[in-house]
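Listing S7. Sequence submitted for prediction.
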Amino acid sequence: MKRLLLLAACLAVAGCSDSKVVVRASLAEGGQPIADLPVFLLPYDRQALMDSLANDAGQPEPAIPAALITQLESLNARETQLAAAGDTAVRQVRAQRAAVQKQVDSIRASRREWRQQVFAPFDSVSRAKMAELGVGTATDTTDARGVARLAADEGRFWVYAAYVLPNLMLEWNVPVTVRGDSTVVRLTRENAKERRFY
């Protein structure tokens, strides 16, 4: 009997919202859909919470200098060119690239450590924000057509998703105001924030 009442209560709560957010994800407008993409409908601005935690850190996130990245890319291209030509200078370029890569890896390790410390309280901060707002999250995964459907009450939300490409990550944190029956949100490379893997 208790299970039946619990099930009825869950169905009643789930049925309270007739509104839905329809997310259409593709790499380009009208391009190939992104399937199997986890999509989150959040009642808070995830990036604003992350920025707040970063601002409270007291020190900025360690950055990889652009000159170091440019040097690494140049050495990678040079190594490929020399290797294709069978040039013996490839060994020297590999040694240079390894030295630069070691510097980049050291900064990346510092960044990982910084992020682990700074963003450790994110889960508790986001739960507190949801409790304050009295609204939870909704999640879905895009189908083969790149479509996800998320039930939501009317109001202000953010659609969050992240997609990994070979050398970078596309991240979306799109604000949406839900009104009426259905609100469509498009996720494409154009409205994503790109995060390189350096």
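Caption to Listing S7: primary sequence and predicted structure tokens for the chain studied. Residues 90-118 form the longest helix (29 residues). The chain is about 40% helix and 25% strand.
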